[in-house]
Amino acid sequence: MLKKHPTRATSRAHDARAPEADLSLTRLRQRLRVSDLLQRTLDPELLVGAFLDALAELIAFDGARFKCADFPLELHRGRTARHRCTYALTVESTPLGELQLSRKTRFTNAELETLEDMLSGLTYPLRNALTHQRALRASLVDPLTGACNRGAFEIALSRELGLARRHGTPLSLILLDIDYFKAINDQHGHHSGDKVLCELADRLRACVRSSDAVFRFGGEEFVIILANTALDGALRLAERVRRSTARQPFAGTEAPIAVTASLGVATLEHDDETLSLFEKADEALYDAKAKGRNQVCRYHPSDNPVE
User: Fold this and answer.
1) Are residues 153 and 247 both part of a single domain?
2) Which residues are catalytic?
3) Are 205 and 127 within one domain?
4) What is the DSSP letter of 106?
């Protein structure tokens, strides 16, 4: 279903119009071609992009914007111009997103009819793509904390290591473990323990850059991947995370809970793979705990060789 919100999208006369039969045949052929294109991908961004490419062959526009209703997807093309037409896309009362086209001159009635006809072929493929991506996203997100899970971490670390190798940029890991988490569960209950995990995930996200990724590796362990970050920068961030954790008590079900964390930091070296880099961060975390907890330790190659 399409709900149109025209803004300065008024009709105007147009010079040469093809016969109705020819126009309908053109639309039909184009719609069939677009339908075939939209069946080839379950990536919403690629799908909307392919739709806009095909639409540009029929209707001239200066700018386009698509924003998904409840999925982190926003696509921009060109520049927003004076005359705009905006459509809320839905399938069976389920909102999919909003598409806006704009240009310097008004859209004609014939162009709007063509656009709406084309949009009717977009909605179901878009619904399928978003459903697939939500399921995929859910499989990579920890349901308790909202942080990415271990599976997502393994995928992301492999990707970031490849990029670091290709571009010669640094890559660092921070591995964090809540100190005495079992005691928190025993003294305050598992519900309070869950609240601590959720609040810690929020504090971690508040500490890192938008380009950094926070993962719940398992239990009370979290990992942060720091792309394009050398050891000094990773140590500074780890210390900021440690202070953020210890500075203010966490909300429990009945009373505030004092929480500290130990952190290990490692940076990619020329012979590292994903496993060896993680093991180095784990070695550093072990050192932090052995030295009394509530501190940051870096991996020292001479002291902690990784087989």
Assistant:
1) yes
2) 220
3) no
4) P
Is residue 26 over pLDDT 90? no
For the purposes of burial, counting CB atoms within 10 Å of the CB of 270, is it exposed (0-12), middle (13-18) or buried (19 or more)? exposed
**166: helix, coil or strand?**
helix
Pairing of strands 2-7, 83-91: antiparallel
Which pLDDT band holds residue 121 (cuts at 50, 70, 90)?
confident
Q: How many CB atoms lie within 10 A of CB 124?
A: 15
Residue 46 lies inside a defined structural domain of this protein: yes
For residues 25 and 62, state if they share a domain.
yes
Neighbour tally for 75: CB within 10 Å: 16
What tens digit of pLDDT does each residue of 28-81 get?
666 667 677 777 888 898 899 999 998 998 899 999 999 987 777 889 999 999
Report the DSSP pairing between strands 63-68 and 94-103. Answer: antiparallel
Consecutive H or E run containing 192:
helix 190-207
Sign of the CA dihedral with 79 first, then 82, 85, and 87 last: positive
Task: Tell me the pLDDT tens digit for each residue of 91-102.
Answer: 988 899 999 999
Q: Is 303 inside a domain boundary?
A: no
> Can you tell me the mean pLDDT for 121-126?
91
- What tokens appear for 148 in the block? 């990415």
Residue 134, Cα to own-chain centre: how many angstroms? 11
Q: Which run of H or of E encompasses 244?
A: helix 231-247
Question: Could you give the 3-state DSSP secondary structure of residue 182?
Answer: helix
Q: By the 8 A CB rule, do 220 and 259 touch?
A: no
What's the count of helices (H) and strands (E) in the chain, helices before strands? 9, 10
Measured between its terminal Cα atoms, the distance across the chain in Å is 59
Name which of 161, 166, 163 is nearest 266 in CA terms: 161
| pLDDT over 90, % of the chain | 70
Per cent of the chain over pLDDT 70 is: 87
pTM for the predicted model, two decimal places:
0.64
